[in-house]
Fold these 3 entries.
Entry 1:
Amino acid sequence: MSEAKKEEKTPLRDFEWMIRPCMMYKDEYDDCTSIKARFHQYFIFGKTVDCDQWKIDYRNCYQWEKHKSEEAYDSLIKSEKQRRHNRLHAHYQNDIWERREKPPENWNTSLPEWMQKEFENSYLHIRSKEMKEGIETSSLDTRCIIL
């Protein structure tokens, strides 16, 4: 295969970005059916959860990847949209918080003086200064701190 052919990639379809690598669906199914997960499901929900959709999605993903099956693609996208809807359902039903169209005008103002003073001695501030100065190994990295 020539370099030009390797560089050429087919453009993504409308919702193809939603499709995960196929092994992720298999891993999710394996995790969902593990003894540890089953115990957790029983503890949280009082019953085990149906994991078959992960298995179906894995099969559809394989059919899409290997054979470009339109039916498998449509089924997989439908499943991902449903999964996304279920995950965000509570967020969309929330009527307590007012949604913003843009960030507040003062979102990037400087921190209060007391907070800046506390930040001066923090690990992140010291390490950030060292990295800007080009110091690879920090004296902070060799200390053992027990909290």
Note: DSSP finds seven helices and no strands in the chain.
Entry 2:
Amino acid sequence: MELNQWVDELFEVFDEDNDGVINRSEFVELIDVLLQEKGIRMCETIFNQFDKNHSNSISKEELKEMVIELAL
């Protein structure tokens, strides 16, 4: 599966309220799935690292950057 397609699918699954961004609680669920329950502190640290514009949400582009950095 191509990276963009994978990120699109991840985004659709975890943007539960379909508002076009992944909010903090949705992000915690995403990280829980991706990192296999490594803890809330890690989620907070990662969220803050990838929420580049400090909007308290993760855009699709920010998610793509996160996936590239953490998963590849």
Note: The mean pLDDT is 85.
Entry 3:
Amino acid sequence: MKKPVLTFDIIKEEIGYSAISSSKGRYIATQGDDFEDLKKNIVEAANLASEDFGFEYSIDELILRPDLQSFFEFYKVLNVNALSKRINMNQSLLAQYISGTKKPSSTQTRRILEGVQQVGRELSAIQFLL
């Protein structure tokens, strides 16, 4: 049996974060006070749920799918003002999506994701002069 790909949906809670996944009829859920704690707990929960199958996971083998609020909390290094300009979105509206005050449509979420992924591609192509 091939090791299944596990995708965890991560949600910002009032206090901390929760993560849920479902694979092969098994529901996996965990929580953490911060992102590092959550990642450790996700690996532990995935491995506990998969031990009957003889699978063991590392964090790099798991797909983490955060909500907007969690993503921007994890990656505070991203400048929201610069991103809003890059994707041509009102900064106030983007801030409301990030804070959870407003819920973006799937089109708006895709627009934000494409902007973030573009920045990621550009950063991964950077080479410094040595």
Note: The chain has five helices and four strands.
